[in-house]
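Pilot study result, target chain (330 residues):
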Amino acid sequence: MPTIQTTLARDIEAENLDIRYDMSVKRVLGNIPLLAPITKYTVKEVEDFPISMIEKCIDEKSIQISQVFVEPGLTNRKIVNDELESKIPGEGRAIFDIRFTITLPDGSKTKIIINIEAQQKSNPGYSLLNRGIFYAARLISAQLTVEFTNDGSDKEQYDNMKKVYSIWICMDCPEDKKDSIINYSFEPHIIYQGNDKLQPYKNCDLMNITFIHLSGKPDQSHHQLISMLDVLLAKIDAETKIKKLQEEHNLPMTIKLEKEMNEMCNLSSGIREESFHDGFRKGERSGEHNTNIKNIRNLMHTQNWSAEKAMSALGFDTSEYPKYLALLQN
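Predicted structure:
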C-alpha cells in the first residue's frame, strides 16, 4: 500500500529541517574567524585590537556550542549528546547557543566570558532584553566555586568574578530596530552625594547584554559587522556567499568553515522549498509542471535526495510519482 504523506508528517519534516538549520548556524558562528569580528565590535576591551590579535585571545578549547544549560544548577554540567537539540525550539530546557572565553594580553591574564545567541525572531512575544539579562546573570552566578568563592577564608572572594557579555544576533528585526547595535550594562548613578570625596565603584559593568539587529539585506548596512552577518545569514547560494565574505569582508575561509557554510546553505534551501510546498501542489493542479519539476530537481541537488524523497518533502501524493519520474527523464 503506498504511503501518503500527511500534513503532520510534512510539518515534522519541516521542523526537523528548521532544527538542523538552527544548529548549523550555531556551528558556523562558532568558528574563530567569525567569533573574532563579532567580539571586536561588541566587547569594548578588544575594540582597538586587530582581528588577528583577537583570534589569539580566544580560547579555542573553551568554545561550547549547544553544550551548556542556562538553568541554575545545570550550567556547569556539559551536554554530552545532541538529544536536547532534537526538541522543538522554545520547548524543554534552555541551552546557551555558544559560550567561550577570551584572555586579554595585558599581563594580568584578564578573562572574559562570552555568550552568543542566534535569534531568529526579535519579537518572540516577551521581552528579549529580559531574557538577555537572565542569560548574563546565569553567566555570572555559574562562576561561583569555578571562578570565585563566597568563602570567608578567601581574601579575594567576589573580586575574582569575571566579566560577561551576552551577545544576541537578531535576524528578523522590526523596522525601528534594523541595522543597529545596542549595549546594556551597569553604570553608577549618584542619588545623593554628601561630600566631595565620594568615588563610585570602578569596573562595575561586569554584566553586558548586546543586541546586534541585522538589516536583513546584504550590502545594505554601512556597519562592517552587520554587513558581514547579513551576508553570512542571507538566503543566497554558498558559492556567492563565500566569495562575498572573502572579497568584501576579508573573512579567512578555513576548510572546516567552508564545509559548515555549505551545509548551512543547503539546509536553508531545503527550508525554503518546504515552506512553499502547498504552493507547489497548487501549481501542479493548474498544469504548471515545469515549476514542480524545477523544485524537485533543486531539492535533489541541494539535499542530495532521491526524486521520491524530494517529492515527499514537497507534499506530492505517491500516486503522482510515476508521472513526475517520467518527466524528470526528459
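One observation from the pilot: The chain is about 40% helix and 15% strand. A full batch analysis is planned for the follow-on phase.
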